[in-house]
Design a protein that fits this description.
Blueprint (H helix, E strand, L loop, with lengths): L3 E10 L3 E10 L3 E2 L2 E3 L2 E11 L4 E8 L7 E6 L4 E6 L5 E8 L7 H11 L10
Antiparallel strand pairs: 1-2, 2-5, 3-4, 4-7, 5-6, 6-9, 7-8
Length: 125
């Protein structure tokens, strides 16, 4: 039996702060001559809306440094356990500046045109 799990928790607090926790787990899988090792990890980010136009986010990838991929090969003549890491744990700071106005009326107009009966812009004389 194989199974995977993913969870995301997002929490907004003090009006302009938000916290997000992402976790994932992938159980061991049967492979020819062995099995894969389970893999899991947890990511964390905290963001702050400095103004309506500027947002800062601090994110940590693989908080507990547990994310790795590996397998066990088990045959009559060989037993081998190996693993690797795709990347090291890292911290990322992002500053986002939003410019321009968000005009959602364009999307509403587009959806209304699609819903009109008759299927198009053709006019009858």
């Amino acid at each position: 039996m194989n199974w995977n799990a993913k969870g995301i928790v997002a929490w907004r607090f003090m009006k302009d702060w938000n916290l997000q926790v992402n976790g994932e787990y992938e159980g061991a899988r049967i492979q020819p001559q062995g099995r894969s090792l389970p893999q899991y990890g947890l990511d964390l980010s905290i963001g702050h809306d400095i103004s309506k136009k500027v947002t800062a986010v601090l994110a940590v990838n693989d908080v507990f440094f547990t994310r790795r991929w590996g397998n066990i090969i088990d045959t009559d003549r060989l037993y081998q356990e190996s693993f690797r890491r795709r990347e090291m744990r890292f911290v990322r700071f992002t500053l986002t500046w939003k410019f321009g106005e968000q005009n959602t009326s364009l999307f509403r107009r587009r959806n209304n045109q699609r819903q009109e009966p008759g299927g198009g812009d053709m006019e009858m004389p």
